[in-house]
Write a structure and sequence with these properties.
Rossmann fold
Length: 186
């Protein structure tokens, strides 16, 4: 795997020798970034369930001001640090090596907000609804674009609290682009 575009274009992305996750393919990342390219420059980007950090690294390479990577496995956190350091983008990384629930709560308490939030949990772990419930609960941090990567037949559980603004398909990988519906405007 390599960084597709931007400052670190062509740089190799290291992966653990024994994969404990399913990396977002180069083709899927390219499609994703073709869609959101106009929103990356200067953005604060969240890469949750970061794995190798490839999605967040791509955002940093393309000009995101800050990338928060959330990953629960220490071995993967080490890989993420190394990938950012080897591309010279480690000054843009804020790594949270913790469970997504604790990480989102921490970010909420700190008052952090995001322009783009990317979530790529294990396809068949059945946690999409939990992720979305937390985002709705902490909607102050999720005022921007929310992107869920999921398998084509996976039920993401997005509800009346979210509006899907786009669905993009890359083989079996789908990206749902969501925004929280602001019920206070109604």
């Amino acid at each position: 795997m390599r960084v597709i575009a931007g400052k670190a274009r062509g740089k190799r992305i290291d992966l653990p020798s024994k994969l404990s996750f399913r990396p977002t393919s180069d083709r899927a990342r390219e499609t994703l970034y073709n869609i959101i390219s106009g929103h990356i420059e200067g953005a604060v980007f969240l890469d949750c369930f970061a794995g190798s950090g490839a999605v967040g690294l791509e955002a940093a390479s393309r000009g995101a001001a800050k990338v928060y990577a959330v990953e629960r496995y220490r071995r993967n956190c080490s890989i993420i640090k190394g990938n950012f350091a080897s591309t010279g983008l480690n000054d843009r990384l804020q790594l949270i090596c913790n469970d997504y629930k604790k990480a989102l709560r921490k970010l909420h308490i700190e008052g952090q907000t995001f322009d783009i939030m990317f979530f790529d949990p294990p396809y068949f772990a059945g946690i999409y609804r939990s992720v979305l419930n937390l985002l709705y609960q902490y909607k102050s941090i999720a005022s921007g674009l929310i992107i869920l990567e999921h398998y084509k037949t996976t039920e993401t559980g997005f509800s009346e609290n979210f509006s899907r603004v786009k669905l993009s398909k890359v083989g079996d990988t789908h990206f749902s682009f969501l925004r929280i519906i602001d019920d206070e405007k109604d």
